[in-house]
Amino acid sequence: MDLASIYQYMIIAYVLLSWLPGLRDSFIGELLGKLVEPYLAPFRRFIPAIGGVIDISPIVALFALRFVARGLVAIVEMFV
């Protein structure tokens, strides 16, 4: 398992915890927030919530993370 996959799971866990306010305010929720929010914030600035409620920015962020991770792997493999 690579770092990008671990970070993707962290984003997914953070999104799922956001649906449960009691868990979001727990130690794990706050820790995930500190690790994931800096990455999600730029996406949230450019992608508005649908209907003001549904936030699709984590989905776009996950695609971007996977795209960049695969690109970096391809670049590294060129030099190995």
From TrEMBL:
The lineage of its organism: Bacteria, Bacillati, Bacillota, Bacilli, Bacillales. InterPro entries: CCB3/YggT (IPR003425). Belongs to the YggT family. This is YggT family protein. One of its GO terms (cellular component) is membrane. The chain crosses the membrane at residues 6-25, 46-69. Keywords: Membrane, Transmembrane, Transmembrane helix. PANTHER family: PROTEIN COFACTOR ASSEMBLY OF COMPLEX C SUBUNIT B CCB3, CHLOROPLASTIC-RELATED (PTHR33219:SF14), YLMG HOMOLOG PROTEIN 2, CHLOROPLASTIC (PTHR33219).
